[in-house]
Specification:
InterPro entries: Formyl_trans_C, Formyl_transferase-like_C_sf, Met-tRNA-FMT_C. This protein is α+β, with helices and mostly antiparallel strands. It contains five helices and seven strands, in the order ααααββββββαβ. It is elongated and about 75 Å long.
Length: about 170
Amino acid sequence: MTSVQLNHLQAPELLSFLISEGSKLLIRELPSIFDGSAKLKAVPQDDSNATLAPKIAPDEAWLSFDQEAYVLHNKVRALAGWPGTRTKVVVLDDKSSQQNVLELKIITTRVCQDMELQAGEQDYVIFKKGSLVFPCGGGTALEVLEVQLPGKKAINAAAFWNGLRGQKLKKL
């Protein structure tokens, strides 16, 4: 599998692939580890090529929708689990003119392939084909498939949208 193909795998598929390939490698190399011949094949690490990764801070979890969708999608995948990725949205109620700010944890996403936004839709989140569609930088869009409200269980985008009962969502 090429690196391009690996980039498009979601976390569960990637984990399955890594388990499969890792177990094959372990079965192939385990005998040489037991008989001591693995030391002959070992290559010492070149410390001059080693790099340190900085510690991930919780404030890096916030999504900025002025970035392109593929950048945000990769960030969601990279920070899955802890700290996860977050955004704030404004819930607009046209009937009562109320506005409530909600913090959402973004659980799963995909890059929207066929999104054409109308004028004035750049600030609003729409619901399309079972996902929340967030307009992003460069004319791209991110489909959010699962979200989680603070202190609640993760739910799919359709359930979240149905809970809005006709209210609009705006990016903050």
